[in-house]
């Protein structure tokens, strides 16, 4: 599957649709070239591995007591370091990130994830390396 975003639920954005078409076309071009016997050299790509889903701070009655901090809003895939602001309580207190490594939050404050108790997802950046490949069907 391919998910290209962000875009609000029930909204079709031309720029996002164009990106989705391009990525699907690249995938289909790869399959065609692979099936024709093309050889692909080794490559390394940067990816983000999901570490954990982070919920909003809640009280003992399971009610949300803080919102995404304005400095974190719209910062998907940007580095988040120890001490950076995460949440802002309803009475103005900043809740900072406490972690031993830089993470890259994504799906920050996405409406589709409220019911799943997910404020954002913490990811870490890593590199994946693939050796060369070639179809053996020839």
TrEMBL record:
GO cellular component, one term: cytosol
InterPro entries according to UniProt: AspA/AstE_fam, Aste_AspA_hybrid_dom
Domain AstE/AspA barrel-sandwich hybrid: 44-123
Example GO molecular function: hydrolase activity, acting on carbon-nitrogen (but not peptide) bonds, in linear amides
Protein name from the UniProt record: ACY2 Aspartoacylase
UniProt organism field: Aegotheles bennettii
Lineage: Eukaryota, Metazoa, Chordata, Craniata, Vertebrata
